[in-house]
Every structure is written in structure tokens, then in C-alpha cells.
Design goal:
Keywords: Membrane, Transmembrane, Transmembrane helix
Strand order of the largest sheet: 2-3-4-1-5-6-7-8
InterPro entries: AB_hydrolase_fold
Helix content: 55-70%
Distance between the termini: 10 Å
Protein name: Integral membrane protein
Radius of gyration: 30 Å
Strand content: 5-15%
Organism: Streptomyces xanthochromogenes
Largest sheet: 8 strands, mixed
Structural class: alpha/beta
């Protein structure tokens, strides 16, 4: 165990950057670094963001390069450091890369919390098992994830159609009693017998809401596409294009350049949104025309529906046709798809609106729109896609088994199921709350309530929410008891880590509890697996219940015993309130984050973790900040070392360590020989290696270790995020003692805090290891090899 408190360093300073510049702990051999040319320390912060003043420990900072979104800063006194190397013989020049505005800087981005299912399904794409064969299974895995993502877009727009077309324009405006309660529905009410009173015209007007939602999603995706996916990455070695397919994915020139795929997916999903709205409008008018005596209108309705079905098949083909291109910078754009597909779907929507708005004097709205079955079909299709995805993932996992792979390679399907469940809960929450709103709080579909309410499936989905909560409560209690027992068992080890200190039961319990709580992260796969499995089974039960209710609604109500009926009503009511509360909670968080900068930063942490990966499955997900941050870091390291010939330590904390590793992968081999990698609080193996084994698996991390000149990784047992990287060689340094002092000492007269994931730079080990890295770079030490030993490894 690396005991930081035994080092001959001074007391850790409160400000991280001050310790970063400390020079008291100079290891043997570091003096030779003074004549080895300039040295640069490039600091990369982690989740939550910070300021350059806090990173550099100086209130006077200057932006060296970059813009208001992401930039590199230096202290004002260090701006011309390269012109005065004699000032920096005993320390590196500190630089800070601040990227927090890529995620949490814009207040409008807090509303992206409502797009959480899109972000989650995008993560599922990158959770593929690490097998490289067979190629058909790898391609099929990507296709299935993209189809699930497409179904989520259709589900979102269908929910908007349910609210605007069915609940509002069809049911409420079609009822004189309901429409009188809302003055803004007066001109469409059947009680006024105006031009807009006909059902088709009300539907045509209401179609503006889901169409506007689709346009808004297209606009946001297009704007972020220009700012993120269109950023040129560093083209490290054009001559190596022939072998790029054999190298780690992060080293390929086109990995951080998803311009073409996102443009195609954006066009397809935009078209899907327009076509969903058009289908909702057309279905009601076509149903009426088939029951009427007008053969012309019936034929026209069939033609419009056939055109919509054909366009839908084109959308599915576009989504399935092409995946990501990573082996080279793909500058092409499929103009026939990106320009004409959304315009064609918009034209079909206009045709559907004209068809529905045609004069039908005898048409009256009753019941619900025929789109009720669409939600059942979507739920069934999503379930089948997730099951097929699990089968493909299991096949790939058998080709490349890994002991630490999350859920034995089924992490992607589990996350895809979670995305579908989130989409269903949000859809049900919107429909239930709007139904309660338009009928002034009456229970939809009951006597005395004018609207019939949302589709039965959404009601059944609400009914299974209490069952899901009932499943999760004992699971959470199990983890709580296990954590408590682990903390008790760890108490003797805590005392042993501080042999010169007098034991204190209260202090020991707090440290042991921090260590036990940190280990909960390693049990997250089990919890996610239980949630996803329960969601799949309960979703199937809700689908079967909705179908049974639609077949025998009267017999189901009459034949059920009183206790069963009471329990069903209670579950439905409680589930309805849960889904509604969940949706309102999302909206409240979004509103608070829009107004409160602190809350906005908290919401931004979700995107820091979830939007590292490019948008490979869903174009309406929050954009990938790494497609800007990784090229920024790679360009800076490559140009600075090429211009000065100096040494560079890239120092990354938490998510910054992931960005640092990804940027080092992008560098040419000559530049990597001048680079040292210092990571701390690093989730590269503990989180990314387990959940994304095809990109951060043992083989990839071992390859990075062999290619970079030298690498050190600091970690603590109290850190719930960071951990060892588990590669062969002298890389891992830990677990560092946390707190650095058990009680009051001469160096620590006040109680030392339990730092957990924060303030790694305040640990004396940080300055010590950074000095060692700079010394190794100065001496030209050969890159690390597996036969150097494993003294730095720890099982954690």
C-alpha cells in the first residue's frame, strides 16, 4: 500500500494548484530534468466543471487559446514561459484546459434532461462486447440499437400526438362540457358549430404541436452538429490508413468525427417525426371514410396511408443502411437523404392535413383516436428488439469473454431496456397529467368525465410502477445491509493503515463507511440488471393486460372480485401519480436548472458522464462534448511539443482522465514519446472498462500503456468513481491513504477530511509522482514493459 503520509513532503495545501507547483518533494534523478528543455503540465478537470483560477491557484489568468466554450488558460505570469526557460528549470509550466461550458455552461441545455432516454440509448451502442468477429454480428448489434433509438423518437412524437390530437383536439374539444372549461378551445368546440368544429380540421390544427416539436429537435440537433461533430480532429498519420482498422478505435482518424452519420440519422428521425404526426391525422379521417359511402375519400385515404407506409420503410432503410466510418475522415454528406427525406415527409404531412381538413359535415368525434394500438405495437417492437439485441450481445460475448465485463456482456441490452422504460414512463406521465388537467382532475374514462383518457396501455404501464418499486425496495435494503456489514468488517484494516495513531471508534467508523460506500459503484451492474429485467417482465405484463382489457372490458370489470378490483384501482391510481410525479420532477429540475447556475451545474454532471460518447444511435441526444474536447487536447499536445521540443505531462482528474487518455490515443507515435500521462480519480477501467469493454477493455488499456512513454495512476479506496487501471507494469499508485492523517498530528493539527473523489492534487503523492514522470521524460527512459514488474498493481 502506498502510504502518502509517510512521504517526506510538507503538509498538503488547501488549493490544488498550489500543491501542483510545490517543489519540496524532488525524487532522485529529477535534477537532470532541469536541462532537458521546457516542461508543460496540461491540467484537465473532471465532472461538474471549475474555473481556470481554481485550477491554477491564481486569480490572474489569461486565455492562451480557445473560445468561450472551451479554452486553455495560463497564469498571467506564465504567458511567455517559452521565452524564459530559465524561470522554469525546477517546475513545469502549468496550463488548464477548461471544458465545462461544453456541457453545463448554457442554461438552455438544462432542458436536455427531458431527452434522457435518447442519451441512454446512445450509450447502449458503445457497450458492445469486445469481440472483433463475426463482422455480421457487430453490424447487426449497431443496427438493432439504431432501430430502438428510432422507436424512441416515434414514441416521443406519438406522445405529443396523444396529448395534442387525441386528448385535446379530439376528446376535449369534441365534448361541449370539456371545451367550455377552456376558453382557448372555444373556436374549435362542437358547441360553437364553427368552421374549426369539424374533427378533421381540429386534428389538422393540433398537428402543429407535434410537428413543431419535431422541428425543434431538428434545429437543436443541426446546431449542435455544426458545433461538435463538424470539428476537425488531428489527423495523426495519414500513411497509416491501411492499418487503422487493426488499431484501437480511439486512435482512428475518424472516431471523433461523426459528421456524416449524425446528418443521416437526423434526417431519418426528423422524417419519422413528421410521418408519425401525419399517420395520426390520417388514421382518424381514413377510418371515417371507410365507414362512409364516399368511395373517393376512402380510396384517397388508402393512397395517403400507403404513401406514409412507403416513406416509413425508406426511413427504416436509411437508419439500417450505414453505420459509423472511423478509419478515415469522412467529409461526404448524403444530400439525397439529408435534404430530400425530411422535405418529402413534410410534404406528406401537408397532404395528410389537407386530406383530414376536407369538409365532412356529418363527422363527429367519439371515443378515442385509432392510434391507441400504436403504443402497443411500439412497446412490443421495443421488447423484441431488446431481446434480439441481448441474443447478439451474448453471441459476441462468447467470442471474447471477460471477467470484469458488466452483466457478462449484456450491459448494452440492459441499458437499451432502461431507455425504453424511461421513454414509457415519460410518455405515460405526460398523457396522465394532461388527461387530469383537461378534465379538471376527474378520473379519465369514468362516469362524469368527458374525456375517455389516454390509451389503456399507458394506464397499465402506470399500474406496474408500484410493482417495480416493490421489487426495488428489498434490493436497495440488501445493498444497504451489505454495505453496513462491509464497513464493520473493514474497521480493523482502517486501524492497521494508521499504526502510529491512537484508535478512535468514531473516526474508524467514518473512514470504513466511506470505503464501503465507495464500493457500491462496483455493484451497479447487478442493480441495473435487476431494474432492466423487472422492467422487461412488467412491460410485457402491461402489454398483455392492455390487450386483454381492450378485448373484454365489460367482463373484466364485472367478473373481478371486489378485493382484486380495489387493488387494481389502487395500483392504477398510485402508478398514475408516480408517472405524473416523475414527469413533473423532470420539468421542475429543468426549470430550476434554467434559472439557477448551481443547479445547472448539477444537471450538467449527468451530461459530463453520459455524453462522452459520439451520437452513434440517436441524433437528438445531447451532443458529444468529447468530439470537441479530444481534438482540442490532441492539437495542443502535438503542436506544443512540435514547436518547443519539450516534455509534457497531461494531468487528468476523473472524466478529465478519460479525455486525456482518448487524446493521447490520437497522437502520432513521435509525439507520444514526449508525453507522460498522470491520472487520478480515474474511471477508465473501473467504469469505462467494465461497461465499454470494446474501447476501454484490458487489451486497449495495455496497448495504451505500451505506447505512451510513462503513465502513473493515483487512486483511493474511498473514491466511488476512480480506481486502478489494472495493467501490467508500474502504473497504479494506491490506494492512497484517505484521510492523510487519522488524528491530530504536528503536520495536521486540525482533523484531515475524507476527500474521496476530490482534491487529489492536495495529496503529497501528486507532486512526487509528477516529478518522477518529468524525470523519466528527461532521461529518455524506454517505454514501460510488462516485465518491469507489477509493484504498482492492486486488487482494490
Amino acid at each position: 500500500m502506498f502510504r502518502a503520509t509517510r512521504a517526506a513532503d510538507p503538509a498538503p495545501r488547501e488549493r490544488a494548484a498550489e500543491v501542483s507547483r510545490a517543489t519540496a518533494a524532488v525524487p532522485p534523478g529529477a535534477a537532470a530534468a532541469e536541462s532537458a528543455g521546457p516542461a508543460l503540465e496540461l491540467l484537465v478537470h473532471g465532472v461538474g466543471g471549475t474555473t481556470p483560477e481554481a485550477m491554477l491557484g491564481d486569480p490572474r489568468t489569461v486565455r492562451v487559446t480557445g473560445d468561450d466554450t472551451a479554452a486553455i488558460h495560463r497564469c498571467a505570469d506564465d504567458v511567455d514561459a517559452e521565452a524564459h526557460p530559465e524561470r522554469y528549470r525546477d517546475r513545469p509550466v502549468p496550463e488548464a484546459y477548461v471544458w465545462c461550458n461544453l456541457t453545463s455552461g448554457n442554461s438552455a441545455r438544462a432542458l436536455w434532461l427531458l431527452l434522457l432516454p435518447f442519451m441512454v440509448i446512445n450509450l447502449a451502442h458503445w457497450m458492445r462486447p469486445p469481440a472483433k468477429e463475426p463482422r455480421w454480428a457487430i453490424r447487426l448489434y449497431g443496427v438493432l440499437v439504431r432501430l430502438v433509438a428510432l422507436s424512441l423518437t416515434v414514441l416521443l412524437v406519438a406522445a405529443a400526438c396523444e396529448v395534442a390530437l387525441d386528448l385535446t383536439a379530439w376528446q376535449c374539444a369534441g365534448s361541449a362540457g370539456c371545451s367550455r372549461s377552456w376558453y382557448w378551445l372555444g373556436f374549435t368546440s362542437v358547441a360553437h358549430h364553427g368552421w374549426w368544429a369539424q374533427p378533421g380540421r381540429r386534428l389538422a390544427l393540433a398537428a402543429l404541436a407535434p410537428a413543431a416539436l419535431t422541428v425543434l429537435l431538428w434545429y437543436l440537433s443541426n446546431r449542435t452538429w455544426s458545433a461538435y461533430e463538424s470539428q476537425q480532429p488531428l489527423n495523426a498519420d495519414p500513411a497509416a490508413d491501411a492499418t487503422e482498422a487493426l488499431r484501437p478505435a480511439f486512435s482512428r482518424p475518424g472516431f471523433w468525427y461523426g459528421r456524416r452519420l449524425v446528418a443521416r440519422l437526423r434526417a431519418a428521425h426528423t422524417a419519422a417525426g413528421f410521418l408519425t404526426t401525419a399517420a395520426a391525422v390520417t388514421a382518424a379521417a381514413a377510418r371515417y371514410d371507410r365507414a362512409s359511402t364516399s368511395a373517393v375519400f376512402a380510396t384517397l385515404g388508402l393512397l395517403v396511408e400507403a404513401a406514409l407506409a412507403a416513406a416509413g420503410l425508406v426511413v427504416v432503410w436509411v437508419v439500417c443502411r450505414r453505420g459509423r466510418t472511423e478509419t478515415h475522415l469522412d467529409e461526404r454528406l448524403d444530400r439525397a437523404v439529408t435534404a430530400w427525406l425530411p422535405l418529402l415527409s413534410l410534404a406528406l404531412l401537408a397532404l395528410a392535413v389537407l386530406y383530414a381538413a376536407w369538409d365532412r359535415a356529418d363527422w363527429a368525434s367519439s371515443g378515442t383516436l385509432p392510434g391507441d394500438r400504436a403504443f402497443g405495437f411500439l412497446t412490443f417492437a421495443q421488447g423484441m428488439l431488446v431481446v434480439a439485441l441481448a441474443a447478439v450481445a451474448w453471441h459476441l460475448r462468447r467470442r471474447a469473454p471477460g471477467e470484469r465485463t458488466a452483466l457478462r456482456g449484456l450491459g448494452g441490452p440492459a441499458v437499451a431496456m432502461l431507455a425504453c422504460a424511461l421513454g414509457g414512463v415519460m410518455t405515460g406521465g405526460v398523457a396522465q397529467r394532461v388527461a387530469d388537467w383537461v378534465d379538471r382532475g376527474a378520473t379519465p374514462g369514468t362516469a362524469g368525465s368527458a374525456p375517455n383518457g389516454p390509451p389503456p396501455l399507458l394506464t397499465w404501464q402506470a399500474s406496474v410502477i408500484p410493482a417495480l418499486i416493490a421489487v426495488l425496495i428489498p434490493v436497495m435494503l440488501y445493498f444497504a445491509v451489505r454495505t453496513w456489514r462491509a464497513a464493520r468488517a473493514d474497521a480493523p484494516r482502517v486501524v492497521a493503515d494508521y499504526p502510529t495513531e491512537r484508535p478512535d471508534d468514531g473516526r474508524t467508523r467514518r473512514i470504513a463507511a466511506a470505503r464501503a460506500m465507495a464500493r457500491l459503484t462496483d455493484r451497479a451492474p447487478l442493480f441495473l440488471g435487476i431494474v432492466s429485467g423487472a422492467s422487461l417482465l412488467l412491460g410485457a405484463a402491461a402489454l398483455a393486460g392492455a390487450w386483454w382489457t381492450s378485448q373484454v372490458p365489460a367482463r373484466a370489470a364485472d367478473a373481478a372480485p371486489a378485493p382484486v378490483a380495489f387493488g387494481a384501482d389502487a395500483a392504477q391510481s398510485l402508478g398514475s401519480w408516480c408517472t405524473g410525479f416523475g414527469f413533473l420532477l423532470f420539468v421542475t429540475w429543468g426549470r430550476r436548472a434554467y434559472k439557477d447556475a448551481a443547479a445547472r451545474r448539477t444537471v450538467g454532471i449527468l451530461w459530463d458522464v453520459g455524453t462522452f460518447w459520439p451520437r452513434a444511435a440517436h441524433p437528438f441526444a445531447p451532443p458529444c462534448y468529447a468530439e470537441r474536447a479530444v481534438p482540442d487536447l490532441a492539437w495542443r499536445m502535438n503542436t506544443w511539443t512540435g514547436r518547443t521540443g519539450g516534455r509534457l505531462v497531461i494531468s487528468g482528474h476523473s472524466q478529465g482522465s478519460v479525455l486525456a487518455a482518448a487524446a493521447v490515443w490520437q497522437l502520432p507515435a513521435g509525439t507520444r514519446r514526449r508525453i507522460a500521462l498522470l491520472t487520478y480519480g480515474c474511471p477508465v477501467e473501473r467504469l469505462y472498462g467494465r461497461w465499454f469493454p470494446a474501447y476501454f477493455g484490458p487489451a486497449q488499456l495495455e496497448g495504451l500503456h505500451q505506447e505512451v512513454h510513462c503513465w502513473r495512476n493515483l487512486w483511493r479506496a474511498t473514491d466511488p468513481i476512480g480506481g486502478p487501471v489494472r495493467v501490467n507494469g508500474d502504473v497504479d499508485r494506491g490506494p492512497l491513504l484517505d484521510p492523510v492523517a487519522y488524528g491530530r498530528t504536528d503536520l495536521h493539527p486540525l482533523p484531515a477530511p475524507i476527500l474521496g473523489h476530490s482534491d487529489y492534487q492536495a495529496d503529497p503523492a501528486f507532486a512526487h509522482e509528477r516529478a518522477l514522470l518529468l524525470a523519466e521524460l528527461a532521461h529518455g527512459v524506454p517505454k514501460q514493459r510488462a516485465d518491469q514488474g507489477s509493484s504498482g498493481r492492486s486488487s482494490g
